[in-house]
Design goal:
heterodimer, A: mainly beta, Methylamine Dehydrogenase, Chain H, four-stranded antiparallel beta sheet, 6 helices, 30 strands, globular, B: mainly alpha, Selenium-binding protein 1 (chain A)
């Protein structure tokens, strides 16, 4: 037990921006070859003063193959300072790492040797099935009173998906979170407005709808998720659903404003069946009702059908396939990953209903195959995917692999994994750092999510403005 | 009551008021959320009321026991209870979570009652109030009220001062350095109070 609060906890997001620079990144690695090799948790050195800067300094292989690691998170974070459940003398030292395909959850301790996380607990799938009724854990958030985990489906891989909780101290699954789910069936991401006791959840599809790869029939039939759900975070009851329009298939990542007094946030939809565009919606509270408005459209880019993978040939265009977004801690800059076109875009969202584009860089892309400035002659595949912004809002790290069966469809020649960094200027413009390119081609596994040591812009939530 | 008792009761009141987990931090947070000092001040009465209620209930229960039980037995019983609770607090770090950030006055009072009870705020005062040999129920109830009153007044003074100073001047960033582990100190204080009850 600590005597002073964990130094990585900050009462407000603005204060967290003054945190010291991150020295390590943890990266989930996905094995795609199916040769019985497990996924891994890699550690990357981010300290510019270190001789190992920009290289992998350790990889911990999981105990069994086939997990498909996705969005992991910390055991506790700044929410431990919240006044109604205060317990700041705990340590941010465990990474909770869920296997999206296996439904297994690993808990790593990073305290003693941060570069080499130590596996301290494994929650087997059967335990999660039995205690929660859910499967396919996907996203982990440190809550005020427990660790919250989203799950894409029930134990049969069907609806409903939802949220379950893990005990803060023992990591034992506590059961499903919802007391009344109302009409909610599909599930993907979740986050909250702590200052308003409100949870928001989004929709992708059930495990049976996504595990074999994107299903064109479901897509054309507009069967993937396209709604947001608003919940009472205290009572765990469904309050409201917001339909973004069934043409906007797959409503994924939720990025609420970090300032707890604000009542808005952003969500990306992956593909519009009308024009293959990807869209960002702003949700907001107005007169006691939560609403959403489409505020950013990223159009598809025309392309030579000969260069396109099978399902896209008929359209002669590359959809941007926006798969992740990240919001700086001052709620000012929103970074948007267009995995299809290979573009990372930046928007000034100070006026959340009227975003203004401030920057763009390219690397990879289905047809673009843009090179990284550090290796100008080498075409890159995959595209900007999971993006994580440092606490000071000056650096964005992003990887290029989405999800095994979806990677194969859009990048049929395979993906050589990379992790790169873009620097974010004061005016919101972005530039790739030519000196930072972590190439996972030699390892053979593909990087997915990145977490930064001490926290990043999508790991913590705050109770004070 | 003797002067020493009064001072100790007030001291514990100040100590409880000092603890951000007992409520002043909640008042600051509500003030920041609403951007209003009125919200800070408005949160204090329910918080103090809940705390006082918890203390009063504990003291009253023991006063009732004292009417029917020999004093030595009560002392040893209280000593065991308070020490045991202190040890438990030392080993267990869970906090009750009952409300969120949008609270009514009654919910805030209820939360404060729960926090004070779960932390053993009343238990910590028991050993101090055991002194004296008045056995009549009336005297005990008067003493109980007085003890809770002194404790609450001290708590109110400290908690209100802290809430206003942090809200107006220091800002919540002070928490990162100044919020030393009061749970640890709290557990030690409970154990100390229990030992005191056994020895006197």
């Amino acid at each position: 037990m600590l005597i002073q609060p964990d130094p990585t906890f900050y009462p407000s997001a603005r204060e967290a921006m003054r945190a010291p620079r991150e020295k390590l990144a943890y990266v989930a690695l996905l094995d795609t070859k199916g040769e019985g090799r497990p996924d891994g948790l890699a550690t990357v050195d981010l300290d510019p003063d270190s001789p190992a800067y920009g290289t992998v300094v350790g990889v911990h292989d999981m105990t069994v193959p086939g997990d498909e690691l996705h969005h992991f998170g910390w055991n506790v974070c700044s929410a431990a300072l919240c006044p109604y459940a205060p317990h700041p003398h705990v340590e941010r030292r465990y990474l909770v790492v869920p296997g999206l395909r296996s439904s297994r959850i690993y808990v790593f301790d990073v305290k003693d040797d941060p570069a080499r996380p130590k596996l301290v607990k494994t929650i087997e799938p059967e335990v999660i099935f039995e205690r929660t009724g859910y499967s396919r854990p996907h996203t982990v958030h440190c809550g005020t009173d427990a660790i919250y985990v989203s799950a894409l489906g029930n134990v049969d891989g069907d609806a409903p998906g939802g949220v379950f909780m893990l005990d803060h101290d023992t990591f034992e699954p506590l059961g499903p979170w919802e007391a009344d789910r109302g009409p909610q069936r599909l599930h993907y991401d979740f986050w909250w407005h702590l200052g308003h006791d409100t949870m928001i959840t989004s929709e992708w599809g059930t495990p049976n709808m996504i595990e074999a790869g994107p299903d064109l029939g479901l897509l054309v039939g507009r069967q993937y998720g396209h709604k947001l759900h608003v919940w009472d975070l205290r009572k765990r009851t469904h309050l409201q659903q917001i339909d973004l329009g069934d043409q906007h298939q797959m409503a994924l990542e939720l990025r609420p404003a970090h300032d707890p007094t604000k009542t808005y946030g952003f969500v990306n939809t992956v593909i519009s069946v009308e024009d293959l565009s990807a869209n960002i919606f702003t949700w907001y509270l107005e007169d006691g009702v939560w609403k959403a408005k489409k505020t950013i459209t990223i159009p598809a880019e025309p392309a030579d059908p000969a260069l396109l993978p099978e399902p896209l040939k008929q359209f002669g265009a590359v959809p941007p396939l926006v798969s992740d977004i990240s919001l700086t801690l001052d709620d000012r800059i929103l970074l948007v990953s267009a995995w299809g076109t290979g573009e990372l875009l930046a928007f000034d969202v100070s006026d959340p209903l009227n975003p203004r584009q401030t920057g763009s860089v390219r690397v990879g892309g289905i047809t673009g195959r843009a090179a990284h400035p550090g290796t100008p002659g080498t075409p890159r595949n995959g595209g900007p995917q999971m993006v994580e912004v440092s606490r000071d809002g000056r650096r964005a790290y992003f990887t290029n692999s989405l999800y095994r069966s979806w990677d194969e469809v859009f990048y049929p020649d395979g993906i050589d994994g990379w992790l790169v960094k873009a620097d974010i200027a004061e005016d919101g413009s972005i530039a790739l750092d030519p000196g930072f390119l972590v190439d996972f081609a030699a390892d053979g596994r593909r990087p997915h999510q990145v977490r930064l040591q001490g926290g990043d812009s999508s790991s913590d939530s705050f109770c004070y403005p | 009551m003797e002067l020493t008792q009064l001072l100790v009761l007030a001291g514990f009141g100040a100590f409880h008021g000092l603890n951000p987990a007992m409520g002043w931090l909640f008042a600051v947070a509500l003030g920041l959320q609403e951007r209003s000092r009125r919200a800070v001040l408005g949160a204090l009465p329910p918080i103090v009321l809940g705390h006082a209620g918890s203390v009063l209930v504990t003291l009253a229960l023991v006063a009732a026991v004292r009417v029917a039980t020999p004093p030595r037995a009560v002392s040893y019983g209280v000593a065991a209870l308070v020490c045991g609770f202190g040890l438990w607090k030392l080993l267990r770090r869970r906090h009750p979570r009952w409300v969120g950030m949008r609270v009514t006055g009654w919910q805030l009072a209820g939360w404060s009652f729960l926090m004070a009870t779960a932390h053993g705020a009343g238990l910590m005062l028991l050993p101090v109030t055991l002194a004296g040999h008045e056995r009549a129920a009336l005297a005990l109830s008067r003493e109980t009220l007085a003890a809770a009153g002194v404790h609450t007044a001290a708590m109110l003074a400290v908690t209100a001062t802290l809430a206003v100073v942090v809200y107006e001047r220091l800002g919540v960033s002070v928490l990162r350095r100044a919020w030393f582990n009061l749970d640890l100190a709290w557990a030690v204080a409970l154990i100390g109070a229990g030992v005191f009850a056994a020895l006197t």
